[in-house]
Each structure stands twice: as C-alpha cells, then as structure tokens.
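ugh ok so i messed up the first submission bc i forgot one of the chains. this is the corrected input, ALL of the components this time, i swear. 1488 residues overall. if the numbers dont match what u have on ur side tell me asap before i send this to the collaborators (the ones from the other lab, u know who)
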Amino acid sequence: MVVTNNSGPLAAVLTGPGEPITLHNFAKPNVKRGEVLLHTMYSEVCGTDVHIQQGKLAGVPYPIIPGHFAVGTVEETGGDVQSVSGRPIIRGDIVTFLDVHATCHRCWQCQVNKAPTKCPSRKVYGVSHSSNEGLLGGWSEMILLQNDVAITHLPENVSPLRFIAGGCAMPTAVHAVERGKVGLGDIVVVQGAGPVGLCTGIVAYHSGARVLIADKSTVRLEAAHTLGFEVLDLSTSDNAQSLLEYATQGQRADVVIEATGSPSAIQSGISLVRDAGRYVVVGHYSDAGSTTINPHLDINKKHLEILGTWGVEYIHFHKAIGLLARKELTPSGIKIEDAMTTIYPLHEVNKALSDVRERRVVKAVICANSGD
Amino acid sequence: MVVTNNSGPLAAVLTGPGEPITLHNFAKPNVKRGEVLLHTMYSEVCGTDVHIQQGKLAGVPYPIIPGHFAVGTVEETGGDVQSVSGRPIIRGDIVTFLDVHATCHRCWQCQVNKAPTKCPSRKVYGVSHSSNEGLLGGWSEMILLQNDVAITHLPENVSPLRFIAGGCAMPTAVHAVERGKVGLGDIVVVQGAGPVGLCTGIVAYHSGARVLIADKSTVRLEAAHTLGFEVLDLSTSDNAQSLLEYATQGQRADVVIEATGSPSAIQSGISLVRDAGRYVVVGHYSDAGSTTINPHLDINKKHLEILGTWGVEYIHFHKAIGLLARKELTPSGIKIEDAMTTIYPLHEVNKALSDVRERRVVKAVICANSGD
Amino acid sequence: MVVTNNSGPLAAVLTGPGEPITLHNFAKPNVKRGEVLLHTMYSEVCGTDVHIQQGKLAGVPYPIIPGHFAVGTVEETGGDVQSVSGRPIIRGDIVTFLDVHATCHRCWQCQVNKAPTKCPSRKVYGVSHSSNEGLLGGWSEMILLQNDVAITHLPENVSPLRFIAGGCAMPTAVHAVERGKVGLGDIVVVQGAGPVGLCTGIVAYHSGARVLIADKSTVRLEAAHTLGFEVLDLSTSDNAQSLLEYATQGQRADVVIEATGSPSAIQSGISLVRDAGRYVVVGHYSDAGSTTINPHLDINKKHLEILGTWGVEYIHFHKAIGLLARKELTPSGIKIEDAMTTIYPLHEVNKALSDVRERRVVKAVICANSGD
Amino acid sequence: MVVTNNSGPLAAVLTGPGEPITLHNFAKPNVKRGEVLLHTMYSEVCGTDVHIQQGKLAGVPYPIIPGHFAVGTVEETGGDVQSVSGRPIIRGDIVTFLDVHATCHRCWQCQVNKAPTKCPSRKVYGVSHSSNEGLLGGWSEMILLQNDVAITHLPENVSPLRFIAGGCAMPTAVHAVERGKVGLGDIVVVQGAGPVGLCTGIVAYHSGARVLIADKSTVRLEAAHTLGFEVLDLSTSDNAQSLLEYATQGQRADVVIEATGSPSAIQSGISLVRDAGRYVVVGHYSDAGSTTINPHLDINKKHLEILGTWGVEYIHFHKAIGLLARKELTPSGIKIEDAMTTIYPLHEVNKALSDVRERRVVKAVICANSGD
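and heres the new structure output, hopefully the right one now
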C-alpha cells in the first residue's frame, strides 16, 4: 500500500478489478454552493464492495474510492444547507447521507414506472463515481456531498458506530421486509445470517413478526443467536423444512426472505413458505448463476408471491435510522455495534475486504480517521 | 358409448384415467331442504377436464361426472332458497353457481392465511365428487346443488350461451388480472390465446389496459385477432421481445400473464416484463415439468413480482358475471359466444374432449339437453 | 342481587336497559356434537357492556348473559372437536374463542363486499343471544360453545389473566392499527387511554411505530405512562397540536387513532394528522351525537384518509393472541395484567360495571368461579 | 379589455382578485438551455380559475397569466430536450406538459411522506407564477416551459382539442378513481356532472365500474346522459338514496366520488355508500364552509373509508393521456370534444370565465391563437 506524502485528505482507491486498494492523498475540495464537506468517522465494507473488487458489478468507472455508506462530522458547507427534515446543517454536526443521488425525477422510470432505483441518471457514492471526480466515496478521510445529496442528522441516541453497524444492510432490510408485507404475527424465515440477513431479522422483529434465521456458518449462526433470534442450524441438517416445522409445531413461514446470494437457496427457500405466502429475493446482488424451478408446484399451485428487491430509496434509509433509535433494537437486547462489527483503520482496508470476502467477520467497519 | 335405458336423467361418467366417457341414467334426486335441482342448459369442457381424463390431477375420486361450470333452469327447490344477492330462487329461473363449495370457514387456511382456495374441506363440482354421490357434475341432464352452494341468477342481458362461453376461464381471468394489479394505462401481454388467455385479455381490457396476446397457433391467434386484440405472432418469430418492442416503440410490459401451461413460457415471459413490473402465472394447473431461472437477472435486479394464481373465490365469479353483462365485451365488439364456442350435444362429449385436447376448437360447450 | 339456589351453573343476567344485573342458576347444558362446554376462568367488562346496560346498542335480545370475551378450561366436548389450528380440544385444556360466529359465508356481505362484520346472520356471544337460548355469554360459571365457534388454545406463555387483560380491546386494536396501515417508523397518536387506546398503543408499538397517547383523565394517563408510552397530557392543556409538535420537534402524526367515543375528538384528532396521513375511527361504537367537519380543510386539501373500523374477524383475534405471547409486550416491560386490570368475583358484577362506567378502573375482569 | 400594440406574444393577465382579465403583449422569451417555447393551441378555463379570479385560492402571486393546462406546437427549444419517454422534442411537434413542476425531491414531503403534491417548493403553471416572471400560464399565445417541466407528445390519435376537452379534469379524475380503488364490477356514483365529475365517470367506466352520475342541473345531466351514463336526476327528487336503490335493485354504491364542492354533498354522498365502501372527496378545492357528520353512523359503524384527493402527479397525467387514446372513450361513443366543449378566442376570456362561473357551459376552451 503506497501512501503519498502531501497534506490533503487520504482516500483508498481501487484502480480496477482484482487490484489491491491503495491510499492516495487528494486535494482538499473546494466546497461549492449547496455542498457539504464531511470529516469521515466511519464507513463500511459490504458484500457489494467485494463484488466490485472482483469485477462482478457492471458499469463501475474504475478507478473509484469505494465505500457507499458513511457517517461523519461536518467540516464545511457551501452556504446554507438543510437536511431532509429542514434542519440547518452546521459545522460540527454529525450527519449521514443516502449514497444514491442524481435520480432525474423526470424520466419514465422515475415518473411513470415509479422505479427510481432504475433511473438511468442515478449515481451512487462509492460505486458509480470515478475517483477522478473527487472524494465521492466513503473510504476516505473526507467526503464531498454534492448539492443534491439527501443529508440527515443522526438522532441523539444513535451513535455513529451503531449507525455504521447497521450500515447499508439496514435500509436494504427495510426494503425487503416492506416488499414482503411482513406484519404482526407473521412467521418469517430469513435465509442467511450475514449483515443483510441479520438486519432483515431485526426489521421483521420490529414489524411484529416471529423471526427464524437459517444459515450453515457457525460464526454467523452464533451472531444470530447472540442477537436473540431463533435459528435453523443448517450445519447439522440440510433439511430446513423439517427444522422449521419442528420449531413451529408443523407450520411453515408466511414470509421467507432470501439473503444468501446463492442460487440453490431459491428452491429450498420456496419450500419453507406456506401456501399463499411470500418469498422475497434480496441477496442476489450479483449474478451467481441459474437454478431450477417448477412453475406448477413452486408458483401456481402454491399461490406464491415472489418479490425481487433492488436498491433502496430515501424512505428506507429514513426508516432504518428511525429504527436504530429504538431502545431495545435486538430480541436479546445485545447492541448490534457490540455483536456485529469489527473495526479497521483506513490503512487496513485490504484486510477488511479479505476478511469480509472470507466471511471471517460479520461486518467490517472502516475508521477513516483513526488518528482522531 | 353405452347408454342405459331407464327414465332418470342422463349423465356422462368418467370411470378412470384414460377411459372414455360413457353415458348413464341416474335416479332423479330427492331434493332436500336448501337444495336446488337444475335442468342443465350448458356445461363446458376446459383444460382441467382434459387433465382429469389423462389422470394428471391429484385426488380425483373416479368415477366422476365431469363439468364444473354449468348453467340451467331451476327444476325444483327444497323449500325457500335464496341467491347470494338474497333474491328467491324459483322454479324456471335461469341460474348458475360457483363450482367450489364446502370450504369450512374455520380452519387455518380459511381464517388465518385467508387462502380458502387451500382449505382441505373444499369441494368442487365435476372434480372432487364421485358420481356415486349423485348428480354433482355439469355433464349431465340434471345437477343437484347442495345447500351450501352459492347460486346466482344470470343478469337479463347475459344469455346462457354467453355465460358458458366465458365459463370457468372468466373468473380465473378475473383472479389473474387482480393478482397482477392491472390498472388504467398498463401494457399487458398475455401468453397464450386459449380460453383463459382470451378471457384474461378481455378482463385486462376492461381494467383499462392495452392488451397484446402472444401465441404461435394460427387458430388461436385468429381468435385473438377476431376479438380485437393486438397479437404477438410467435408462429413467424420466436423473439417475443422484439415483437413487443416493435409494437410499443421500445417499451416492455407492465404486466405479463402466463396462460400456456408450458414451462418454457416462464423465462420468455419474464423477459417481456419491464423493470419493477409483474409476472402472473395462471396457466400451470398441472405439473408440466421444471424450468430454469436466474435469480439475479430475472428477479432481484429486475425488482420483479411473480404471482401464482390458484383457484377462484366467489368474488371472482361474481365479477366475471358482472363483466359479461357489459354491452361491448370485446375490443372488436364481436360476441364471445360467436367467436369462441363450438357446441356439442351430451352424447358427443368424447369428441368435445378430444377436440379441446388437440386444440381444434377454442372452447367446447356441452348442450346437456339437446332435445330441448 | 338475587341468587337462586339450585345446583346448576350460575350466570349473570341483564333483563333490560337500565336494570341491575342479577345472578341465576341455569341447568347444566347437554353438550351436542361439535360443541364444547367451558368452565369459565375469566370474562371482562368492556365499554360495550356499559352501552348494552344503558340500552344504547340496537338489537340486543334482552334478557341476555353479557360478557363477550372469556377464557376457561374445557369441561366437556361433544365428540372430537378441533381448534382452528387443527389441534384436538380435550377436557382440561385452557382455551378461548372468538365471540363472533354464525356468519353465513354465502351472502352479499360475506362473499361480494368481503365485510363479514356486516353479515346479517352474524351472532356475538354476550351480545346477540338471549339468555333463553342458554349459557351463551361470558359472565357465567359455564359457557356453551356452539359447533361453529372458532376455538383456540392459549399459547404456553400467555396466562389466562394476561389474555383477559387484553380482552376484546386487543383484537379491536389490531384491526384499528391494520386499518391505519401503521408501519415501521410511523408517528402514531392514540386519542384516549382506555383499554382500546392502550391496546392500540401496544399494537402500534409492535408494528414499529413511535406512539404517543393523549387523554385528560389522570388515572388513564398514569396507566399509559406506566406501560411506557409518551403521553400528551390534555388535563393541563387542551392544545393537543402544540403538545404533539413540542414532543416531535414540529412534526405531526402519520396516523391518529381515535379511541374515545367523543364526537369532539374528531376535529381535534384530524388536526394532529400530517398532510396525506391517516385518521382511524374505532371508539365510536355507539351514537354519541354529531360533529362538524370542513371538507376542504379537513379532508380534501389535507389529502386525508379517514377509516372507520367496525368489529373484528378471526384474523385479528389470532394476531392479538400471538402478540400477547411476546416477551416484552409493553414499552416499559410492565405486564398489562399487572398495570391494567382490577378483578371482581361474579357476584360483584354490578360494581364492576359501575366502576367501568365511572372510569374508576381501566379494565374490570370478572372471575367467574371465584371459589376455585 | 386593453390590448397593447407591440409585436410580442399576447397574454391574458389577471391583476388581482375581482379584476377583469386584460390582454398584454410580452417580449418574446429568450429560450435557455433545456427550455421549450410553445406556440399555444388550446388552453382551458377550469373551476380553479374561477376561484383564483374570486380570490378564493391562497398564495396566488397576482398579477398572473392564468391557464394551467395547455397544448401547443414547439416553436423553439434550448438545445436538445427530451420528453418523459425519452423522445426528442423538435420544432413543430405537438406537445403538452404537466403544470406542476419544481417539486424539490429532497424534502420531508417528497422523500418521507411521499406526498409531492404537498412539497413547499412546488410550482404550478398558471397558478403560482407571477406574470412578471414571464409567459408561465396557458392563456397566452406562447408559453415558456422551464427546464424541469415534464413534457410529452400527444399520441397520434389524441387531437389537441380532445386533449383539452379532458384538460385538468382528466388527471384529477384518474387520481380520484385511484384513491377510491375503483375496480371491475364496482358500482360507482359520481356526485356532480361538471368536468371533473364527467371525467371521473369516464375513468371509472374504463376501470370496469358501472357508473351513475348525480346532479340537479339540467345542462349537466344532459351532458352526462349524452356521454352514455346512467343518471340520478336530483332536479326531480332530492332523495338520491331511493333513486340509487331503484336503479340498482336495492344496492348501494361500492364507491361514491364527490365532485361538487358543496359541503352539503358530504352527508348525502356518504348515505349512498354501502357498508365497508369508500367515499372520495375531490371537489372541495376551495373552502365552501363546514358540514355535520355523525362519527358513529357515518364512519365507524359503516366501516367507511373517506379519501381526500389533492393535486395530481405526473403518473395521473400520463394515464389520462393514455386513456384519451382509447377508441371508445365514452359509454355512448360520443366524443368528449363534441359533447363537452365550448371554444372561445383569447380576447373573449372574460366571457369564458363568466360562462364557467355561471355554469352556462360544461367546459370552456381558450383558442390562444385564433387567427391561425
């Protein structure tokens, strides 16, 4: 890892698929009207970052500064800037922002299909900006928020570390649970106890559901257990259906939410859903191949709903932050920032990335200014 | 075909899978309190009847009298009987009935899952009653409606032949269109121009959609065209997507409704749906094998909804009849009873069945008392 | 209060509007096929019972045995009887039942309007059965459950006292919260801290909402506070809107739920709802007069939804029981059976009734067999 | 009416409440990047214009050029400009546009409440732009579309006159019908046969409903009748309920949609809705005073939904235009441009306004360049 020596903010740059991340100094940005410069506190490493490094995500304009979720303190603002709730943003405030911006609000996807996550103008911090455009990613000592970015203060009782422990997984989970129309009294099975799976469990729990989380990784099952969830331990039996029926006295799930990314999870997951239930696919963020399905048995006769879940909108981000402010966030009462996170300084970002890829940690957090 | 000679009503009996249908005289039923005896006018042959004869439907208690949809005149009632709308049912009235009855209203499926089409007590005329139980199927000169059957008069401007031309396909279509949340201005593609496909087109049209129907059979495409639908002619090109984009100046469908029963239709159909659209599976009423799907490309990234559609409830039957009363039922103004039906007397029921199986006709109607 | 002396079960009878309740012995019922005889543990006194005694509810066939919610042990069954979940009901089991039964499942309201709470055949234990028909109300040592009554076991971790502490208010609350489409992150204001209001707060809390409860009664505000809710104290200020905006830094509610029964609550409640929010009316179970509304300001310009909530279905009852099984039911962790209930033996039912009418207690529970 | 003599485009200006409209020449605008200059074909006079002239609408920045809906040919574009569907906008194209623009997409209303019609930044052509800002209203020979305005071409089979005959009433009607969840087989009563009422009837008809329109004005009833609707003639009887029950053999409406603006319509309209039905308020665009409602009888016991309907979004505008392209737009087949419109040249705009105010015409259309 090469670090240059000038005095501007340091940022981690990924020059192309398969390349190691290197640190570089950037010029301190000139903050224009409506923009906000953040002094980064935390960013995160998520599964998408792994896919980006592996070159599995289409349309990434390498070189980039990765990191799409972050939280920091306001260093400077370009004149008067307000948060989404209309509160002034002042130097020193602790704020975060939605990584997605630049949706056009005028195209067919935005206006007619009501699918802004499909807007062709849409940009994402840490994913679809080149590092040549500036400090537009989270793995950096500073981040420049352009004038159309939706910014919000953290509520008093949400610490920056708690926020990043949820990270991008939490709004994704809100979206998935909403797609699944999870409600009071539903039995919900989550496939996969990674960050998205665990957050999905938390969101479903706070929507009134009974939640069971299935995985075969011991590390991940333990995390699920620590957070207070019932688990379906697939390391001892691959018959998820009988594990579920044992736990529920013969019932199946009202909703199953896939958060594994594995094609083989699909048919197995569908078998756990009751007739006329719902199956949500949220883990397949990159192409891991195809699988087999029986249209009669798996869909038509079962009167099943299958619901893909792509991207998040501000509303999901907003609800995620609101949820983090709840006193008892997990069924066990254990804090997610204690149970789920491992913290790395910025210069260990390659280790963080490989630990996530090898599933040695549940959630890697990047402390961008570890000298602070 | 053997016909016995006593004087009771004649009914068609299917003794087992693969057997020909034979006609038998039954004793005229003793009409108990709350029951209604119908003098049958028309019944129909649908795809499910073909599957029943081929032994492809599970749980059929052979021997049975097939025919689940029918219309007739009231011959006798067991005391005062009322229609669903509270109107007295009197000798001579022209009425029809929902084939499904005996749902328990007390079980988990009925009360908790709100999926009465999955109630284990549910019975269906012409499908799940043995002929040993009596005249409980439509291919018969008389039908006995038990005291829990939902009965309704035909509206004045719905002729018995128009009713049966819609037949069971029409409420199935209502259910499929409702599952697909088809609304004003939607582009809807229907895969398959059989009775369910054509009725689905009609229902979607009256829900405010622009409808295109895809098929490769010339007979069926002609029926779709006669009824006034735009067609995607798959006999000349198997590239449904380019046919659709040509017809719509580059758009894809908000909703695609599968009404073919063919596993290969699934992936082809999904490719026609726009991002964040809906795909309804209604044609897979029996197991025709599996197919391949890519969870990332076909579901997650596409933000797709896939919706199975099993059975119908009274509300769909009710709405179907209401729809048949509309003055201009089809886009072309051509009547469905003129464009879709071929009439067979009861003693030609085997021919009707084979004509449906071989797709020589769109819809076979059984005239149960052809001597009338 | 006159008590007769024979040996059959004792029940409380209300002979007409304005009359005191008297106790009478009834013959022990002959249990027919499919019926279940309960040895009553607890029943309750709710606001509707007060209205029934005051003659404010239409269509009550006095004399009646009041009490529509109850829990008890099985004394005897008429052959094999199953719960809704299919579990056999055996002598000694602790069970409860939905008070509503006899909906016909065949009429326009049941089948077309999907409004079974409006079915003309619908009967309610403790409300629409005369005591001449037998032990069909909860204020009785024994209750006879007819063969169409939906019966369910209490889950292991729901004690009979906890069940009755929720009582009829809990499924009503489930219905109200569902009507209001309350979801994760919503700000919900409940008007009225009686049993329905408090239960509504609990259900909304478990649906992911932030809940504030408004009242002016000190007893009721204290109950709300004890259960852990934020309160809007209308005893010190009648300006609910400024209290709310103070608590929320200027926001109004996504959903306001009326649980007071007072006509003046309507306009005040609507003023608390944000633009494009929802206002649920659930407290107006009897006619307390009219009020004034401005269609432009209160409804149209506000883009408001107003949602009446009549009766409950089994699904609401089911979800209520499921919710009671949650470990942490209230925001404070205080048990509702500790915070909300006052227990009266059967022979003090008149006192219970007047204490509820005069709002001296939050919830009066009748211990039907206090000698047990 | 004073007309100045220079050579720029002529526009009608309303200087303040109660003032007559006068015509003025404006300088031909300088078309900036992303803007489009329209040569106006038609604009319209709607009820809101009457309210604006009477000073009944809050926040109007007089002087203004009224006219919020219009259609015209493209005179000039500021560089490459695209329609919402991505089609280039070229000189000579016939286009129209959504009057609402400048919603911020970043505030609480836009992002969290999902109520962009409540965004404080929202601007409306012909309503919330001062004439000092330029040609930003429809009653003008030219209109300047700013670079954030959503523009669309008219479909081939929608003539400019047909478009303006629907005018702003059509998307409003789409919104109202959507709020009312009108679907196949619903009985819908529309209160008021003005432009919004008639368009609501048309949209409900194309959503599969049976539509009855109630009014007491002979002119308006005749328009409703000409378009092919069933009518409830309130000029001969004020008992709308008995008229409805006569027409429907005793049923009431699934949905009633208020399009009168009269407070007394509310209670009368609610009485027409069946139990568990829906009541949509769309006519109360200005404050016409209060009315009385009984929370028990009108809302709670009735299990009613009441739904206010404020403003429109692009999706409603889009669906309205799609609907206008249908071959058979009205039940009778009569064209709306023949049955509903009276055309006035720009210099007769005061007469148009008074004819609308006095209800002498159903819909007044302004032909902005009558010399063309």
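quick check: Chain B touches chain C at residues 84-86, 103, 105-108, 111-112, 114, 148, 150, 313-315, 318 (CB under 8 Å). that seems consistent at least. The longest strand of chain B covers residues 36-45.
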